[in-house]
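Feature request, filed as a ticket because there's no other form

It would be nice if the structure record came with a short human-readable summary line next to the tokens. Right now we just get the raw output. Example of a typical job, pasted below so the devs can see what we mean:
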Amino acid sequence: MSGRVLVAGIGNIFLGDDGFGVAVASRIVGEALPEGVKVGDFGIRSMHLAYELLDGYDSLVLIDAVGRGDPPGTLTVLEPELDGPPTGDAARLGVMDAHTMHPEAVLNMLGTLGGHVGRVLVVGCEPALIGEYLGLSAEVEGAVEQAVGIVMDLVAELSTSTRKEGSS
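Raw output as currently delivered:
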């Protein structure tokens, strides 16, 4: 294991709080990161993310707006199940759309291309407003700096733990 971690901000900046992941990623770009960590704004470019993952990453941290019914601005760290056939939207997608971002479809495409990522975590924020406008709601904007801290903690943990596993 190399300890390589990809941090991917995803979402559509033209749809209000859906741009949360992109906002967090843009703030992390200026931070000091451990060796082997790459941060990118992937927006809605799912194919770009799948091809980037082919470069060989041990872990992927996705940052996105995630509606779970919590109060707006609530942050959650999720670790999706990656085993088994695709379900839900991923099962219905079939063909990858270059202008939308479906993380399940990205991971399915990665497997089809012969790639693999060991661990996937999602840092999600409950949106307040998703509609055709630029900028984040006050609640979601207020969660951005806390999300930066969460992602930085995850990156430190992931880059260290995968290096230790590889040296055993």
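Something like this underneath would help us a lot:
The mean pLDDT is 84.
The chain has one domain: 5-133.
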